[in-house]
């Protein structure tokens, strides 16, 4: 596999596929309106990336950068490419691309109280196998609780809030969120 990233600021040819994947891969409660992602992608500190294996489209990666931190807001592999090693290859390429930075992300809280526990536990194993560890922090956005994971780096709650402010700006006032 030869994973490379194409920035949609320079090449929007995959935007339809990305939007379709975004809507199918993330439940409505976890999705920002797509136009917000597109608007955010115009900022210098945002990477909205199409993931390619050579010339073949395989997924999407949306990252917000602040100081030495890079937060993966959204990452998804095209449905027909799943369970074929592309997700791991994309994450390894991302770890290389963002080398030297604190790379982190949030996954749905893993707990037996959830009806999709097996799916959540599988997602946790996937990220752990790709080199991410749980930070011990949790984030609640609206009714969804997430576990933060990183490339073995520490991100304080205040740093996380600051990063979100760089992306959301005044909209941060309308986000119900707590970090614990």
Structure description:
By secondary structure, the chain is of the alpha+beta class. It has one domain (3-179): Aminopeptidase, CATH 3.40.630. Helices cover 31% and strands 33% of the residues. It has five helices and eight strands, in the order βααβββαβαββαβ. The protein has an eight-stranded mixed β-sheet with strand order 1-2-3-4-5-7-6-8, with helices on both faces. The chain is globular, with a radius of gyration of 15 Å. It starts with a strand and ends with a strand.
| Helix/strand order | EHHEEEHEHEEHE
CATH architecture: 3-Layer(aba) Sandwich
Name the CATH class. Answer: Alpha Beta
Terminal Cα separation, in Å? 38 Å
Helix percentage range: 25-40%
Strand arrangement, largest sheet? 1-2-3-4-5-7-6-8
Q: Which stretches of 5+ consecutive residues score pLDDT under 50?
A: none
Shape label: globular
Task: Give me the Rg, rounded.
Answer: 15 Å
Mean pLDDT: 93
Structural class: alpha+beta
User: What is the CATH T-level topology?
Assistant: Aminopeptidase
Number of domains: 1
For the sheet with most strands, the description reads:
8 strands, mixed
By CATH's scheme, which homologous superfamily applies? Gcn5-related N-acetyltransferase (GNAT)
In total, how many beta strands? 8
Strand content: 25-35%
Number of DSSP helical runs: 5
